[in-house]
Specification:
This protein has about 375 residues and is of the alpha/beta class. The protein is built from ten helices and 18 strands. The chain has two domains: about 210 residues, Medium-chain alcohol dehydrogenases, catalytic domain (Quinone Oxidoreductase, Chain A, domain 1), CATH 3.90.180.10; about 140 residues, Rossmann fold, CATH 3.40.50.720.
Length: about 375
Amino acid sequence: MTISADTIPTQQRAAVRKGTGASATTSIETIDVERPGPGQILVKITWTGLCGSDKSLLQDEWEDFGLTMKPEAKGIAGHEGVGIVVVVGEGMGNRWKIGERAGVKWIASTCGECEFCLTGVDEVHCVNQLNSGFSVPGTFQEYCIADGRYASKIPDGVTDEEAGPMMCGGVTVYVACKRSNVKAGQWLVLPGAGGGLGHLAIQFARAMGMRVIAIDGGEEKRELCQKLGAEVFIDFRETPDVGAEIMKITKYGAHGIIVTAATKAVYAAAPGYLRPNGTLVAIGLPKDATILAGAPPMLMALKKLNVVGSIVGTLKDVDEALDFTARGVVHPVLTKGKLDDLDSWVEKMVSGQLAGRAVLQVTGSK
């Protein structure tokens, strides 16, 4: 049996990709509204975040890695969507009620049966997972089908527009902070600290008791980073030797660094900021397949460095990240727009004009 709302339209508006490669754009099209099957829910998307990964998929930037939007996604990107449950599919009546708020993430669903799912803590690597905007239609549409098991409950005290970026950007840096192995009272370096991921990483790191060295450029970024709790701000534009400045502050180097900036220069410099046994966490995803995360073997061996990768988080990680916002500890700095203007927001992202995270309104909340 399917529990349905009275007035679900048969058609909806969606931002659909047109063309391929770097010249690809999107167009607002009218498409059908699908009905959820067993185990699924239908979510009326109110707000969706705009992530750098959306741009990468829309413009085939990861083609060299074998990652391009699949036909099953129907050209609809987006994986930071939040909205209202309007239809509850068979078997989901005990978990979801019409009117509750749900979040749709990069990981749209997992199989629950493979080795990684069965560990109970590592379903991020499910070999049969489906991904929003990659292998299933994403959140750049008014109504989105979601796996009822894997959609996230949005707690009270978190607005839809705040919750959107936590579905990917927020949980990504939250997990990266944990992966850094930096303990309370120890130093964490954040290049690009004033950006969409970096400004959230400052807040999570401070909430965990870490001492944050923020690296970015300009007075606006300095003010933002210090306001969010960075103990030290280094302006890379005005500092001839960033590594030497970090050594002066920390004596032996930082305990950890999270690389959010997907540039060759940052990845090359990052290991030199670390003390012995320090950890580099790679989360920035360059489109250039020749960029490597790491250091020359001599430096790696002599300093016993750790280089780890991290990608989004488990369903439990998302719940934990949302709880930081519900408790008023972590709040994304938002720049708000409309889905209709998606292409212009992508251009602003490319040119570095966005402060914090961009969120796009898709529909009203009622």
